[in-house]
Amino acid sequence: MKKLVGQVTPEEKNEIQTLFERRNGLNELAKILTADNTDLYEKLVKDMGETGSKFQNWWDTMAKKYQWESAKNGNWEINFETCEIFLVTPEN
Description:
The chain is α+β, with helices and mostly antiparallel strands and 92 residues long. The chain has helices spanning 10-32, 38-66; strands at residues 2-7, 75-79, 84-88. The protein has a three-stranded antiparallel β-sheet, with no helix packed on it. α1 packs antiparallel against α2 (38-66). The longest helix has 29 residues, at 38-66.
């Protein structure tokens, strides 16, 4: 189930969109990079960790700021075109 629970500003949307795209790019790079190139591999792992933390912090900060509804086993999702935030929960 998907329920509209809020909206963010275009600036806030831009922040999470940048992190989202970076995280996806790093995940794709991780699929093709081997541990043979130790320096690059270590940099990738570090960057993935930092980006993941920033991504989660954004959601935590916005949820607190806007007091979004939450649910057990649910997660929030953003529509990048409208800046709307949805609570997504599993169908029963």
